[in-house]
Design a protein that fits this description.
homodimer; alpha/beta; 434 Repressor (Amino-terminal Domain); Rossmann fold; 3 domains; six-stranded parallel sheet; elongated; DNA-binding
Chain lengths: 336, 336
DNA sequence: ATCAAATAGGTAACCGGTTACCTACGGGTA
DNA sequence: TACCCGTAGGTAACCGGTTACCTATTTGAT
């Protein structure tokens, strides 16, 4: 493969001159020399070696996307928006699938530090209570090594982040069901551990503020997949006093609940209202279509990327941006 | 950031020794020296510089995934399987979203050559007839620069690839509809241009081999999204002699057809049979659930990665692997 | 006692660029 | 004539590792 040395030799100039021409430096260069060098580079099918460039410059023009999965609309939409922004700015993204394992996150982060990525966009896994400590260690490790970070979906001190006010979204979801007259409202939470769950707190607060008493039997936790929604749906509906509405913290599980209701011959929305979280093509396609709390995913992805790029450009500083979720009314909820 | 020079100085040894210890070389090292070096590396929170390593070794342990989109179950499933295999082998993947633009593919490929990726997994865009020439140029450019390639979804000479026998799948889909007694069978093709479409040829062959005459009015082309399926569905169904069955070359468009039928109060499968291509969570969730020709996506992803890894390891050679699609019967087809 | 082999480590060129600093020359000006 | 400045280009250190080749000591066998 051709190098600037080859070009320099052929053109009878130094590598400095070649480098200047090839990088459009402001250093004055004779037009003839420039032309000769460009022609030779072209003839040799020269491709600059980014590795060598990175070693010399200390920048890799690479950022890493650390996300829990890509087989999921939610992350896919965010990731696509991110890749888009980053690519426009001349960066290429590493795809790092953490599979919701903090251990994998740590492994990846060490690898990424070694690779000297310029920045990291990170959706940290927070399933077990002790995960939070590891998250902080991972973030600290990145920061110590001078790597820019933007987190999303989580909240940490002293780093840029973009999140959605899930408390508000969950409060709105619950309030919406209450406003439709529901009093026994089931809740299917995600993986986040107990009291640290924003959505759970919002659900409870909304009930309390409406004077509805909170029944532990109506609160369950699932693993975010459809099957888990199905099983938890059956569990909630198969009780002595089943709920008339269920608030589910993600889409796939909400669809699982619809399937459970159908299986039990419970009509939605006539006999059961279901509200989901996140919007995706699924919630529009399913019948009845799902009423959901929508998170602005593309916006999250684009903003996360821009925060990172601003930081890398020296413009912009660390900031935390919180976006608002919104209620999307479709067919799966009705008055009691 | 600590370097091996720092460690060498502190330990009073040369960088060669540090490098040997840190890389588990077979060169003999005194246990005390080894221990001292490891301890110092740890104390300095040393992270090896992969950039420098790559420059010296000529390998980056990086491969690129060049795919048309990630906001699509099809590529997402393949990409997840790929990332998995590659990561197990110590590689990190670049996520390159080509957005079905050959120009972007070319841009990416030049960037990837500059970055000296070890390999590329590539799903080339083939929409316009002239795209094929560009594809070949791109592939040639990669090969000239010593970058391993695996293509999927397309067929080229002299490179490894994994594909699905879409002709067979389409033939099977059409034959299945014929076996249910259908004689007027609509066809909604994808972006691939006219006669180069395997699935179109298979559809026509299956009809001819059953003595059914081919009606151009029943063949249309869509842009792979749901809306396009909806519009094409309406178009086919709003004719003087509408089809009693429709074969659609992807999932989203098939779902669009279901919506169109519903909108026109045409019962599926009683009055209209619909068969899709690709399997995804959507086809299971939709009602009626879609009968489809399933492509083994995870398998494709895993095999593509393994072909590439084998090539990079020097084991294994260029080979073309064709996987078989299979019919998954669900609710959207019935006898005429 | 001699010498080959094993052990432990060092030297420095190399990977392919970037860039601070230096040289050389011609023209304009006081 | 002396000096300054702009133009054009070169020199070589540097980024952080790897590794072929070399040296020096110790061990074991003959």
């Amino acid at each position: 493969m051709a190098t600037i040395y080859d070009i320099a030799k052929i053109c009878n100039v130094s590598t400095a001159t070649v480098s200047r021409v090839l990088n459009g430096s402001t250093h004055p260069i004779h037009p003839d020399t420039r032309a000769k060098i460009l022609k030779t580079a072209n003839k040799l099918n020269y491709h600059p070696n980014s590795i060598a460039k990175s070693l010399a410059s200390g920048r890799t023009q690479t950022i890493a996307l650390l996300i829990p999965t890509i087989a999921n609309d939610y992350y896919t939409q965010i990731a696509e928006a991110m890749e888009n922004e980053l690519n426009d700015a001349g960066y290429i993204a590493y795809l790092c699938n953490t599979k919701r394992s903090v251990l994998r996150e740590t492994e990846y982060i060490n690898n990424l530090i070694a690779r000297r990525v310029d920045g990291v966009i990170f959706s940290p896994t927070r399933i077990k209570p002790e995960d939070n400590i590891k998250n902080l260690e991972n973030i600290e490790e990145l920061r110590e090594n001078g790597i820019a970070i933007v987190a999303f979906g989580s909240r940490f001190k002293d780093i840029s982040q973009v999140s959605v006010n899930t408390y508000k979204g969950a409060y709105e979801a619950t309030s919406y069901l209450i406003s439709l007259g529901h009093r026994r409202i089931g809740f299917i939470d995600g993986l986040t551990a107990g009291t640290r769950s924003n959505r759970r707190r919002a659900y409870i607060d909304a009930l309390k503020n409406s004077g509805i008493n909170v029944d532990d039997a109506l609160m369950v936790r699932g693993s975010l997949d459809m099957d888990s929604g199905y099983k938890n749906g059956l569990k909630l509906l198969n009780t002595a006093r089943p709920p008339t509405a269920i608030f589910v913290v993600n889409n796939l599980m909400a669809i699982g609940v619809l399937k459970a209701a159908k299986n039990m011959n419970i009509k939605v929305p006539e006999k059961l209202s279901v509200i989901g979280f996140d919007d995706s093509i699924l919630s529009r396609l399913i019948e009845p279509s799902l009423t959901v709390i929508r998170q602005p995913l593309e916006e999250m992805g684009a903003i996360a990327s821009r925060l990172l790029l601003d930081e890398l450009n020296g413009t912009g500083k660390i900031q935390s941006i919180e976006l608002e979720p919104s209620l999307v009314e479709r067919e799966s909820c009705s008055e009691v």
